[in-house]
Amino acid sequence: MEVLEATVTVDDLDAFVARLGEIGDEHGVAVQALDARYVVDREHLQRAVELADRAFERGENIADERSVEVLLYAAATRQISRALELGVETGGCPAVIVVHDSGASDGVDSQGDETAAIEAVRALSAVQTEATLGDSDERRVREWFEITDPELATGADLSALVRERVALLVVEK
Q1: Which of 34, 136, 145, 146 has the maximum number of C-beta atoms within 10 A of its C-beta?
Q2: β strands within the chain, DSSP E
Q3: DSSP secondary structure code for residue 34 in this structure
Q4: What family does the entry list (predicted)?
């Protein structure tokens, strides 16, 4: 898994998402852009990718496309329409773009090229590389993942609670 932190500025969201899909197809990887304000840290994304891969390996995936499955796990929801709310939006948006070659995580000699895909995404005029990971909006995150004060009072940090929500998606079938 490779991650590109950036601000994404798009007028035509459908065209931007389609271009990310084309880049993914060209390089044999899944590409997903998420609103960085909802991503607590790299481990959040790593866990989502791992669980999406596992769902595909077991034939238990919800989505037909791996990039959408990653989004579902990152958003901790089985509803694609709801998960899309965590994607980037029209206008300017802090983003985290995940590029993942599922073969790379399996230890298989993979044909996907994460590095070339990241460079292709970085070259898009809508993408301005800058640090965005770690600047999540706690209010948004807590609201989205329904994290309560009593949960935080247990001593668990927000990141751990979000990863727990991501992992619980498997159980909620």
Answers
A1: 34
A2: 2-10, 30-35, 91-100, 127-129
A3: E
A4: Belongs to the CGI121/TPRKB family.
Whether the Cβ atoms of residue 161 and residue 147 lie closer than 8 Å to each other: yes
Nearest residue to 3 via CA among 31, 35, 26: 31
Q: Is 78 exposed, middle or buried (0-12, 13-18, 19+ CB in 10 A)?
A: middle
pLDDT in tens, 70-123: 999 999 999 999 999 999 999 999 999 999 998 755 444 455 799 999 999 999
Are the C-beta atoms of 19 and 77 separated by less than 8 Å?
A: no
Q: Which domains does the chain have, with CATH numbers?
A: 2-169 (3.30.2380.10)
Two tokens, residue 19: 């271009």
